Amino acid sequence: MRKCFSTCARVFSHENPLGLPRSPAPGGKGPPPTLPRAQRGLPQKRPLRNVKHAIAVSSAKGGVGKSTLAVNLALSFSRHGLRTGILDTDIFGPSVPTLLGLSDAGEPKLTGQNMLVPLTSHGLQSMSMGYLLPSESAPVAWRGLMVMKALQQLLHEVDWSSPAPLDVLVLDLPPGTGDVQLTIGQQVELSGAVIVSTPQDIALKDAVKGVAMFRKMNIDVLGMVQNMSVFVCPHCHQETRIFAHSHGPNSQHSGSSSGSGPSGAEAKAADLGVDFLGDVPLDARICADADRGMPTIVAEEASGVKVNSGYYERIAEKVARKIGLAWQ
């Protein structure tokens, strides 16, 4: 029996920042979920319940389009025969509700064991801190301990089992290389991480830090994605690099992208010994689709005209094959 999260007695504390009930619901089966106990020494990694593969989508720099890519990546998996979910782990600035058109969806329901039931949109299951806030504009003004406890609850108290366990769960990480990234990397068995960057040098420098962080935690870096790679003029169709970078033989501040040899994130990936997964162009339609809760994969599927969805699908196929998932 499921019940609304909002009808529960919400008791907030440092141990239970999401206010989840700590006893089974009436008619519920079994004990309520428990969080992993803190142990001395190094944290032990464990798989997420009812998830076959978990992959992290990360960017050490904010504003590079990571969440937009994560959602379209997850939707690409879903459209190609994989049972997929996305977990928004950005406690302070969750984006997934907006990207999936679920900003006004209300709070999630609870299972009989008081596990959060993911919300579904466009055939994709999702969970986010944004679903648990009283309004879209409500701030989360918490210190580290509350944030970490909330993260633990999002990781371990969501029911991904219905209608069947997931083949892949995409974790949309917040920008940076801080507590959330370290906690996930040290406690969750990840199949790998995808690093997102723009061609700009300032973003690439932080992307290098992201790669180093995952390598220190012995997590496979599946590859780098270069977002907002070029702008294609809708009138003359000339390609222009909006974001200047000085890395590689093709560097320039503006103008046509003609030339030879890799540049930007592709060149940086080669320097780091990381696979380059592909480019996504800077296109106003991608931004507009995201803002209206119709990610590019869904919007172009509905229109029947594919312009940008192919970029996401090719990246998703490479990632799926790298972690051993069949691609239909």
Automatic annotation (TrEMBL):
Residue stretches in coiled coil: none
MF terms (GO), sorted A to Z: 4 iron, 4 sulfur cluster binding; ATP binding; ATP-dependent FeS chaperone activity; metal ion binding
Domain of life of the native organism: Eukaryota
InterPro entries in alphabetical order: Mrp/NBP35_ATP-bd (IPR019591), NUBPL-like (IPR044304), P-loop_NTPase (IPR027417), YlxH/NBP35 (IPR033756)
GO biological process: iron-sulfur cluster assembly; mitochondrial respiratory chain complex I assembly
Keyword set includes Disulfide bond: no
GO CC terms: mitochondrion
Pfam families cross-referenced by the UniProt entry: ParA (PF10609)
UniProt region (Disordered), positions on chain: 16-47, 245-267
Low complexity composition bias: residue spans: 245-264
Transmembrane segments: none
Keywords (A to Z) from UniProt: ATP-binding, Iron, Iron-sulfur, Metal-binding, Nucleotide-binding
The family this protein is said to belong to: Belongs to the Mrp/NBP35 ATP-binding proteins family.
Descriptive protein name: ATP-binding protein
Organism: Fonsecaea pedrosoi CBS 271.37
